[in-house]
Amino acid sequence: MKAMTPNEALQKFQNSIPSDVIECWNETISENMTVQMNQIISRFTLKQLSLKILQKKEVSFEYANQHGWFDLEEYFQKVGWKVTFDKPGYNESYESNYCFSALRS
After folding, report:
1. CB within 10 Å: which end of the chain, N or C, has fewer?
2. Chain centroid to CA 77
3. Which CATH number fits domain 18-103: 1.20.58, 1.10.287, 2.40.128, 1.10.10?
């Protein structure tokens, strides 16, 4: 057996994500979406996303985090979104947040 490539590992990880977790991401993106000029933007906090996932899946934050359910930026980048995740640094105090953006087609 050969070792898997990074792309194969990413694909395996993405295939292991429950579809209702992806649905929670999609709902959160669309609920927070705005269109500005020719750009689509969605900004939301980790707290907003986690509440939706934890309610739907009835799991703890730690479980969801351990299974990578809050780290799906690459999954969405593959389909055309530019995704950034921002969390407070030392001596900063604001909520961790995601920003999704794409050019309007």
Report:
1. N
2. 10
3. 1.10.10
